[in-house]
Amino acid sequence: MDINLTALDATIFGIYILGVIGLGMYASRKGEQTKRDYFLAGDKLPWWMIGGSIIASNISSHHLVGAMGMAYSRGFIAVAMEWGAIFMGFNALLWIFLPFYIRNGFYTVPEFLHKRFGGAARTTYAVLILLTYVLVEISAVLYLGALSLHSLLDIPVLTSVVVLAVLTGLYTIIGGLRAVIWTEMLQLGVLVLGGIILTVATVDAAGGVSAVMATSENWELILPANDPDFPWTMYLGGSLCISVFYCATNQFIVQRVLASKNEWHARMGVIFADYLKFLIPLIITVPALVAPKLFPNLEKPDLLFPTLVQNLLPSGLVGLVMAGLIAAVMSHLSGAINSCTTILTMDIYLPYFSKKTSEKDAVRFGRVSGATIIVIGILCTGLFLAHSDKPVFLYLINAYGLFTPGIAAMFLLGILWKRTTHAGALTAGIMTIPLSLLIEFIFPEMPFLNRTGIVFWTCMAACVLVSLVTAPKPEAELEGLIWNRASLTLPAAEREQQRGIRNPFYWWALITAIVLFFYVKYA
């Protein structure tokens, strides 16, 4: 599938690429050579930048390409993993974890584990999360973005991978989180605009809004227990632990919250992300629901996005929608790379190799590690070439299920149960990968979200049992680290900010009610 961009398309596409790189380089000049500035943008992010950057970094080619392909083959259930995050993951971040991250002044999520348990738990998390970022986030996003560029422009996949990685890495490595956030806000706008254009064009070609509503007879958010991919039993553990991990204990997401001006901005930022998390999956899913009417026999569901672009968009809009795809790829990559460099610097390099290094040397190490991560991500992209027979989005969720059950158990029990010990947390973290592989080997036909749920509850039980037979930390050392009712409210100094319609609770209740309505109606 090869599409020849017109001069107008190429101009729009080129202006966007140059604009992102230019904005990233400009932002990099605004910061100082300190750890707080490079890794957390100087703690100056307002709520709208927090929420926007969370979603810009979250939505990527595995949504525009992967989730759209899954919606084409599986239907409305494609939004369940995204909307489920509003109920589970973002609620866990908003009402349980966020106060402890902000009030302790952490740079990274592993720092919470260090303060709550000890260095070994921190290192276990850091290793698991780095494996997840490189094998799932960076390499998968590069692969899917390159696949679409190859399908549309006939650019070799490897060439696309290298170009995307190098262009994104350039401003990310130089400018740190500030450059990432600034470019993500531009990319979010282009992504949403491009997605709306493609949705309108597809719906119009399929017969209008009536064509969309005709598919609503088959909209389901809760499927039978024997469904091979999304049984309703996934909500009992698999979806829960993946969502809690990804939204509440994941450096990739939490780093934006850590960089907030204050706790009010952090809370409102997460709630703003809820609204975007509701809207953008609809933009991605709706065209896929009506696409079978236009293209009923696609050999590869993951090729739906380039198919729609090639066949439905006029000159000029092709370049804009392609810019939207690249926006999704670059924003996700920049966020993942920046999170990797932050963890490598703050949780591995400084504690174990150079405790007394200067601020400037810490930033320098962050930049070197970023370049290394990019190279490794490019090399790992080839792993996804073997998984092209089904929507790649399914493989990504499966991969999360391999790494995340133990992480979710460590954090949930660590913050909710003061009796949890370092040995218990380590047990949960260490056993997650071997246990996941063992259950997959024994029950290969079991839906992966059910397997993930079994591993999650097994890790939880193991953590509890080990904790009960090992000595806990003295209560004095747990002050400010265990959840209580005070965690639900803002610090006294910030309560004036939430009067009237500025109260985060009202905005949270509204979006929660909207999503709950869909789940009840299409259960």
UniProtKB/TrEMBL annotation:
Q: Which cellular compartments is it found in?
A: Membrane
Query: What is the designated name of this protein?
Result: SSS sodium solute transporter superfamily
Membrane topology per the entry is: Multi-pass membrane protein
Q: Report the main location listed first in the record.
A: membrane
The record lists the membrane-crossing segments as 6-26, 47-71, 83-102, 123-145, 157-181, 188-212, 232-254, 275-295, 315-344, 365-386, 392-416, 423-442, 454-471, 505-522
Record's keyword annotation contains Transcription: no
What would be an example GO MF term here?
D-glucose:sodium symporter activity
Record key words, sorted = Membrane, Transmembrane, Transmembrane helix
